[in-house]
Design brief:
By secondary structure, the protein is of the alpha/beta class. The protein folds into 3 domains: 35-344, Glycoside hydrolase, family 3, N-terminal domain (TIM Barrel, Alpha-Beta Barrel), CATH 3.20.20; 378-581, 3-Layer(aba) Sandwich (Rossmann fold), CATH 3.40.50.1700; 649-753, Immunoglobulin-like. The protein contains 21 helices and 25 strands. The strands form 6 sheets. It has an 8-stranded parallel β-sheet. α1 crosses α13 (332-344), α3 (49-57) packs parallel to α4 and α6 runs parallel beside α7 (171-186). The chain is globular. It starts with 19 loop residues before the first helix and ends with a strand.
Length: 754
């Protein structure tokens, strides 16, 4: 502690002109054991900020280093908390204030952007940067300084509810999106926490926290690159995943957390547990016998901040140190990581937000325009037999459970889930599709009926929808998933049944954290109603609101058009209506493969060479049984990168030439249709020859979004670093490409020699 009369600039840790490392060491040297342990905890969102503030001031709650919220929100109270920490505690250490940020801050007044898969569908990583920069500015205005984002999980298990947080199944796309998101957050004053390290997107049976059955090569080749890129981009935080990989819980995995993350990738930031993970290791996994063993495990694995609880950095640990059973210096490494993040974010100089003017900086015109633009570029047309664009004079029957609500995506605040507090929240302002369709096509041309719920099928409700459809020229069915809710943790339980009984609605949470599904087909009530509607012989346009893959095999065959709308974001439904009208030309491409059925999982495109029935190639059917499978084929219904437009494109003259460390690919793309449009050029590659290990059948090595006017051709050039063609060898190190490389663009193929 400073001597009496000592100036602040004479106290090293308070001097902003000194190196961060020197300030950190000075502060640690001044801390008591209790103060050190306080810096290793994050409190959760179960109480409001004002309750936490009052209880802390009254001495009824322990001071924490970090606070996290999902619903609670009040910039004025955040400032009071920071003032308390800075002015009323001995050392004046400010708080980390954290919030979810996968597609906008998950609190009431912040802009809700389309879900990550929609951003990936643009195949323009600049949108990830722009979104992150926008949400960082909003978060900072509200008093937050840390975001749990980006989500670097590679999507491999579509039954998993948290697929919706992912940027998709492709390593290159996820890597580029996530690294740009880190830059966008941290260049605007918000600490990025990349998650979930590592292999979280492949849980057994699709159940959240279930074990992942992944070998080290697969982890390194597919799952590790996004994290490596985020570390290189300067990510200040990392969060391990809940589950076991090869039987070892990741929070207890020294190889991945220390040898790989810290030493190999060079990450020197703060590792924070996922919510309650420490307690799970002790009480569920039973991998340690005592809380003190858990404490030692955390310090050995360099886990720095415990959220949310006191299982590891606990009174038991404090007692052991006080008794001399452990040296107090064991806390120095986690302390360095936590305090370094606070210094790098400038919190010791200015931990406060502008509580009077914060509303001017959130949900701004510019940020809403960006949310709309991402939807315009990401929505993905999967089928169109000519029914789209719709004609303004057509009578439209708008049917389906997502027609009357704004399905914005998981980790979005909805006022009804919070006792109708913050009723002016962004989710309440977002237009439902019904209103957007009426605005675009006229109320007199749009008739609406819900028809069915997400979990329930009511014959009377269905009959009403069928009657409306009989008088229509075209049926627009708004289906897909429901991710409205805090986390969906009580999916199918008491809360949902109460909502159904009280409001006459069926709010079954079918996507999002804790909302895992045992099948990936379109929800059964929707499938049943669609079959009834198709009997009318009217054209049917299916809108799929889903941030994760669905098997729409029957629907793709039976419907006249299919448009994938993801989690559409707060400005997205007007985009949907305008795209149906032809005002906007679809240009998105799928960031994940769509399976034919649950039994076809996994269905990712970038599998190893002998996968997916490449031996027999005698696909079967019920009419003619075969092999790979007996009654089907193992291919995806629609592959990664699939997407249509209202215009058409033709590829010609594909060339690939290596020059030093770069392969330059050129291809001519012609717009052969009737509309000016944007288009994403995707370049895939396959190593014809590898040493010992099996090659990937193909992988994306470059992409570029371009604009081409109707009737025009564009020569598109992409420069690809040669390390994109490397692969993980027998010794788990990257092997440079050698021999022949095949290059694919659309239906063209060329080769070059390394």
């Amino acid at each position: 502690m400073a001597k009496q009369g000592q100036r602040a600039d004479e106290i090293k840790y308070k001097n902003p002109n000194l190196p961060v490392e020197e300030r950190v060491e000075d502060l640690i040297s001044r801390m008591t054991l209790t103060e050190k342990l306080e810096q290793l905890h994050c409190t959760g969102s179960l109480s409001t900020f004002d309750t936490y503030y009052e209880e802390t001031k009254a001495g009824n709650a322990r001071m924490h280093s970090s606070i996290y919220t999902y619903r609670n929100f009040d910039p004025a109270i955040v400032n009071r908390l920071q003032e308390y920490c800075v002015n009323e505690t001995r050392l004046g250490i400010p708080l980390l204030v954290a919030v979810e940020g996968t597609h906008g801050g998950a609190v009431p007044m912040m802009t809700v952007f389309p879900t990550p898969a929609c951003i990936s569908a643009t195949f323009n990583e600049n949108y990830a940067y722009q979104m992150a920069a926008a949400e960082a500015k909003e978060a900072k205005a509200c008093g937050f300084n840390q975001m749990y984002a980006p989500n670097c999980d590679i999507l491999r298990e579509p039954r998993w509810g948290r697929c919706e947080e992912s940027y998709g199944e492709d390593t290159l796309v996820v890597t580029k999106m996530c690294s740009e998101m880190v830059k966008g957050l941290q260049e605007n004053g918000i600490g990025s926490t990349m998650k979930h390290f590592i292999g979280f997107g492949s849980p057994e049976s699709g159940l959240n926290m279930s074990a992942a059955h992944l070998g080290e090569r697969e982890l390194r080749e597919f799952m590790l690159p996004p994290f490596a890129a985020c570390v290189k981009a300067g990510a200040l935080g990392a969060m391990p995943n809940y589950n076991e990989v090869d039987g070892l819980p990741m929070h207890a995995n020294r190889y991945w957390l220390v040898d790989v993350l810290r030493k190999e990738l060079g990450f020197d930031g703060m590792v924070i547990t996922d919510y309650g993970a420490a307690g799970l290791l002790y009480s569920r996994c039973n991998i340690v016998d005592t809380p003190l063993e858990l404490s030692k495990l955390f310090m050995e694995n360099q886990i720095d901040l415990e959220a949310c609880g006191r299982a590891a950095y606990s009174p038991t640990l404090q007692e052991a140190i006080e008794k001399g059973e452990m040296d107090e210096s064991c806390l120095d490494t986690p302390l360095r990581h936590v305090l370094t993040m606070k210094f790098k974010l400038g919190l010791f100089e200015n931990p406060y937000c502008d509580e009077k003017n914060w509303r001017e900086k959130v949900y701004t015109k510019e940020h809403r325009a960006l949310a709309r633009e991402i939807a315009e570029k990401g929505l993905t047309l999967l089928k169109n037999d000519g029914v789209l664009p719709l004609k303004g004079s057509q009578k439209i029957a708008l049917i389906g459970p997502n027609a009357e609500i704004a399905q914005l995506g998981t980790y979005t605040y909805y006022a009804y889930r919070d006792a109708d507090k913050n009723v002016d929240c962004v989710a309440n302002k977002a237009l439902p599709l019904k209103k957007a369709m009426e605005d675009r096509f006229g109320e007199e041309n749009v008739k609406w009926a819900r028809g069915c719920g997400f979990a329930l099928y009511d014959e009377d409700m269905a009959a009403q929808a069928i009657e409306i459809a009989k008088d229509a020229d075209v049926i627009v069915f708004a289906g897909g998933h429901n991710s409205i809710g805090a986390f969906g943790g009580d999916g199918g339980g008491k809360e949902q049944r109460e909502d159904t009984d009280t409001h006459g609605l069926d709010w079954a949470h079918t996507s999002g954290e804790g909302a895992d599904m045992h099948y990936v087909e379109l929800l059964h009530p929707q499938r049943k109603l669609l079959k009834e509607l198709e009997k009318l012989g009217k054209p049917v346009v299916l809108l799929v609101y889903s941030g994760k893959p669905l098997a729409i095999t029957d629907e793709l065959n039976d419907c006249n058009a299919v448009l994938w709308t993801y989690g559409v974001g707060c400005e997205g439904n007007p985009v949907v209506a305008e795209m149906l009208a032809g005002d906007i030309i679809p240009s998105g491409r799928l960031p994940f493969s769509l399976p034919r059925s649950t039994g076809h999982l996994p269905c990712n495109y970038n599998h190893y060479l002998l996968g997916k029935g490449r031996l027999y190639r005698k696909y079967g059917s019920y009419e003619k049984p075969g092999k790979d499978y007996v009654f089907s084929e193992p291919t995806a219904l629609l592959p990664f990168g699939y997407g249509l437009s209202y215009t058409t494109f033709k590829y010609d003259d594909l060339k690939a030439v290596r020059e030093g460390d770069v392969c330059t690919v050129n291809v001519t793309v012609s717009n052969t249709g009737d509309y000016d449009a944007e288009h994403s050029v995707l370049i895939f590659a396959h190593n014809v020859r590898t040493k010992i290990v099996s090659a990937v059948v193909k992988k994306l090595v470059a992409f570029k979004r371009v604009a081409i006017k109707k009737g025009e051709s564009l020569r598109v050039e992409l420069e690809i670093p040669m390390d994109q063609f490397a692969y993980v060898g027998v010794d788990m190190k990257y092997v440079p490409a050698h021999g022949e490389i095949e290059i694919y663009a659309d239906d063209l193929t060329t080769t070059f020699e390394v």
